[in-house]
């Protein structure tokens, strides 16, 4: 099995050293940056499997860096946020972060979240006959992790893809928020109340003709969401 690479972007040198040592002991290769100016080049040169990105960075803050990353890459991103600052967490998720963790945190919890996200990605070794889920003009290629609508590729973050896959695998079935996130992110994932809604809102903006009146992903008030199979 190939060693997976993590990119840590954080200006806290002691934290980088601690996490690098811990993750390397657990079988990962680690690269790091102390600011986000060269994030895109580093990602392009090293193709990390997952990015750990602090919001509080010198110069460009983490949200600016995340926005730039999402313009070119679908690499999973876990944001590190100040404890209690829901605004940063919500904006981060809206910009395409896959998960968040407030500081201070236990490295074991961060490792569990990393493994949960990467496990979902590697489980895409799907039998060929089960690789495609189709609904009207929309085709989800599970093996290649690509969504196409009317033959055009739609860029999704890792979590957006996982949520859409969960919903499309159970068409016309109401799933609760907990069911969606447990299936999409694994049992190690601990979502805060609005994270599912934010990811769904982002998905609607990418797959619905009119996101304000969604036809594909319906809200079932008090329960959760349902993917409507459009013929």
Structural features, described:
With 231 residues, this protein is of the alpha/beta class. It folds into 2 domains: 5-122, Response regulator (Rossmann fold, 3-Layer(aba) Sandwich), CATH 3.40.50.2300; 128-227, Winged helix-like DNA-binding domain superfamily/Winged helix DNA-binding domain (Arc Repressor Mutant, subunit A). 39% of the residues lie in helices and 23% in strands. A 5-stranded parallel beta sheet has the order 2-1-3-4-5, with helices on both faces. β7 and β8 (146-149) form a beta hairpin. α6 (158-169) packs across α7 and α6 crosses α8 (195-207). The chain starts with a strand and ends with a strand.
Q: What are the secondary-structure elements, in order, as H or E?
A: EHEHEHEHEHEEEEHEHHEE
- Tell me the number of structural domains: 2
- Total helices: the number is 8
Bulk shape: globular
Q: What radius of gyration results from the CA coordinates? A: 18 Å
Q: Average pLDDT value?
A: 86
Uncertain ranges: none
Let me know the number of strands: 12
